[in-house]
Amino acid sequence: MANQNTPERTSLSPDLERRGMLFILSSPSGAGKTTMSQMLLTADEEIKLSVSATTRPPRPGEMDGIDYHFVDDATFDAMIEKDDFYEWAHVFNHRYGTPKGYIRKGLKEGQDFMFDIDWQGTQQLYQKDQQDVVSVFLLPPSLPELRRRLESRAQDSAAVIDDRMDRARGEISHWAEYDYVVINDDVDECFVKVREILHAERRKRTRQTGLIPFVRELMG
Ligand SMILES: Nc1nc2c(ncn2[C@@H]2O[C@H](COP(=O)(O)OP(=O)(O)O)[C@@H](O)[C@H]2O)c(=O)[nH]1
Ligand SMILES: Nc1ncnc2c1ncn2[C@@H]1O[C@H](COP(=O)(O)OP(=O)(O)O)[C@@H](O)[C@H]1O
């Protein structure tokens, strides 16, 4: 069996074309989206991260263009003006948005993208492209554990952590809008579940555009 962190190809066949997928991970802050998305990106060479633009300042260790495109308010305004965003939203007193160009081009070429976005962005992507969106909501095992994770990440001030905890219930209230809900208790078990979802969704008949010519040929 392949090691769970080893890159692998998961296409049914390299010859079969399929539609790219918009794979969304949402959760209250601290429940584990970044952890899960990094594990999936390491383990699976067929999915790329959609790098959002944000007006929030970088955390220690975050890199411009890798974790986010860190922009100022004027630049974000200009991007809205130029219709550069697939979707954007206000979250925690900052603005976050998904730049369009890169995603559109990739999807056409059958590339899968992972989105670490909130429920507002998820709703907007569903409105634009219902067929290609797969959404997963991560729940923490408990609220005290959620606080413990925010504190253990040690990258936000006490006031920011309090604010995120205050908003957690509101974010959790959107759980039923998602295709899948996974409780992130043990990190490795959660990863296996999220990866199973990704693999199964790739095999959906409607995503495999190469099936029609394949079956035609199969049937002679
Ligand atoms: N709608 C939308 N939400 C985003 C985007 N990028 C990030 N977010 C969400 O903004 C929230 C705050 O993200 P961040 O500041 O990185 O904090 P974290 O969730 O604690 O890692 C999270 O719920 C993210 O999923 C985006 O492009 N669009
Ligand atoms: N299943 C888990 N058990 C324990 N700690 C976890 C688990 N998942 C994530 N963490 C830790 O919790 C903190 C918040 O996780 P992170 O992935 O940054 O959350 P988010 O991106 O949703 O804000 C990080 O320090 C991370 O290492």
UniProtKB/TrEMBL annotation:
It catalyses: GMP + ATP = GDP + ADP. Its main location: cytoplasm. Gene3D superfamilies: Guanylate Kinase phosphate binding domain, P-loop containing nucleotide triphosphate hydrolases. One of its GO terms (cellular component) is cytosol. Keywords: ATP-binding, Cytoplasm, Kinase, Nucleotide-binding, Transferase. ATP binds at residues 27-34. This is Guanylate kinase. It comes from Pontixanthobacter aestiaquae.
